[in-house]
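Quick check before the chapter quiz. The format below is the same one you will see on the exam, so make sure you can read both the input and the output lines.
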Amino acid sequence: MEILIISGLSGGGKSKAATFLEDMGFYIVDNMPAGMILKFAEFCASGSGRYDKVALVYDVRTADTFEEFFSVLTTLRQRGYRVRLLFLEADVNVIINRYKETRRMHPLQEQAGSLAAAVDREIALMAPVREQADVVINSTTYSTARLRAELLRLFGGGDRAGEMQVSLVSFGFKYGLPMEADLVMDVRFMPNPFYIDDLRHKTGLDREVRDYVFSFRETEQFMEKLQDMLNFVLPLYREEGKAVLVIAVGCTGGRHRSVAVTRALAQYIASLGYQVSENHRDITRG
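Here is the expected output.
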């Protein structure tokens, strides 16, 4: 079982990191006292694989002393758990600005008397934890996308969890646009199989309809240009931190042309190494 302890400075990016790690398949528990970590690890280990990847947020709110915390880390490793400690921090002025923007109070501000004093005090308090960290990330210059990408690189485990998923949806314009769509492609310019008697009652999943739609040069040209565009934009969406990109392809009724094109796009995007889902919203409608 993999246990990742997320610690660091308040305002350093722990909450964002926890969110991204949850997208990567980690089970997240916030504000976990050191005295409960061992029992929680035992509970997870007995969960038949359900909690194989756990991330626990441990910070100054739960830290009276760090002796118990370090002892717990040692015990976990002795018991064979894969344990890593991630420490997130940022420059003092950046943390202060982040708190001013959110208008939240620093957890030590009431004791310290001012925000700046609270940040300085936390840096001193958390220094022993930082020294024990396996990974330290200074988020001062990190965009949200860069933080997500760095966490995926460090803790993705070589699997595909956390990568951008591409969701393809075919639809009929006469039934309305899919509200969740990020990109919409209109293929109503293509010759319509609806007007071919032998094809009218088939769908774009049938080979006869697919062969008809792709027998025209304009269809092939459209696909070539669309593939070029996707080769350009998909890596950019992924770098920006997009978790799910929804591409909708529409024709008049959502039964023939859009379905055939969506199926071809799904196969192409999957060949690029992306996780792809395919949904034909209106294929059963008239």
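If your answer matched, good. The chain is about 45% helix and 20% strand.
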